[in-house]
Amino acid sequence: MTSSKIVIAGGFGVGKTTLVGSVSEITPLTTEAIMTSASASVDDLAGVPGKSTTTVAMDFGRITIDQDLILYLFGTPGQTRFWFMWDELVRGAIGAIVLVDTRRLADCFAAVDFFEHRGLPYLVAVNCFDGVQLHQLDDVREALAVGPQVPVIPCDARSRESTKQVLITLVEYVLKMRRGAVAPSR
After folding, report:
1. What's the gap between Cα 12 and its chain centre?
2. What is the band of 13 on the pLDDT scale with cuts at 50, 70, 90?
3. What average pLDDT does range 15-28 have in this prediction?
4. CA dist., res. 14 & res. 143, Å (int)
5. Cβ-count burial 37-46 (b if 16+ within 10 Å, e if not)
6. Which has more pLDDT, 76 or 142?
7. How far apart are the C-alpha atoms of 45 and 2, rounded to whole Å?
8. Residue 112 and residue 97: Cα distance in Å, rounded?
9. Which of 10, 43, 54, 169 could join 14 via S-S bond, C-beta 3.0 to 4.6 A?
10. Buried (b) or exposed (e) across 122-149, using 16+ Cβ within 10 A?
11. For 77-82, what is the mean pLDDT?
């Protein structure tokens, strides 16, 4: 039995908590806090109407992919004031998912830069809200300036099967990189 750590990052309100919750076989640990008026001047809620909570430390879940592999999922907080948590959450991870909302694409640049700077394999998962993919995946790749070796795939963070496929794609990508079949993302 092998266990591995996966980090899920992205902008505020992109669906990281939802992704972890949709696939976790245990009740996910979340550190959701109610947003108060004190955060009104700090948090841009323009793209996330109705959002009333935010992750302040991390989300945690677990999924058994097959009899030999358990993945531990760590969702990062999306707001810049909580980014100090990322260094701790990424420690020991084999790879990462950058979850993207194409309506607010600039919100995920920091996550892409973070993982590239650390040489951690990652993929880009385009969250298709309401089942709608607003942009072609090649256009998202170009806008994010990620290399052709980095997987860019659609997903629905609410769907267990979709999220499971994202995790499988990441694990396969990490294995290919470790075997030297794929060049690093730098």
Report:
1. 11
2. confident
3. 92
4. 17
5. eeeeeebeee
6. 142
7. 40
8. 9
9. 10
10. bbbbbbbbeeeeeeeeeebbeebebeee
11. 66
Looking at the predicted structure, is the pLDDT value of residue 39 above 80?
no
Give dist(CA 154, CA 137) in Å, integer. 8
Rounded Cα distance, 167 and 32, in Å: 23
- Tell me the two tokens of residue 82: 């909580």
Q: Would you state the torsion angle of the CA atoms of residues 83, 81, 71, 129, taken in this order, to the nearest 10 degrees?
A: -120
At 160, list the tokens: 């267990």
Mean pLDDT, the chain, rounded, equals 84
Contact indicator for 174, 182 with CB cutoff of 8 Å: no
pLDDT(164) > 90:
yes
Segment (H or E) for 134 = none
Task: Say whether pLDDT at 47 is over 90.
Answer: no
Which helix H or strand E contains 118, and what residues bound it? helix 109-118
**Per-residue tokens: 11:** 């902008």
Q: Could you write out the three-class secondary structure of 71-87? A: EEEEECCCCHHHHHHHH
* Cα–Cα distance for residue pair 38/56, rounded to 1 Å: 14
pLDDT, residue 103, reads 84
pLDDT band at 28 (very low <50, low <70, confident <90, very high): confident
Q: How big is the chain by its Cα radius of gyration, in Å? A: 16
State the helix-helix crossing angle for 160-178 and 16-23, rounded to 10 degrees: 100
Here the tokens at position 14 are 């992109």
Q: Which two tokens stand for residue 144?
A: 């994010």
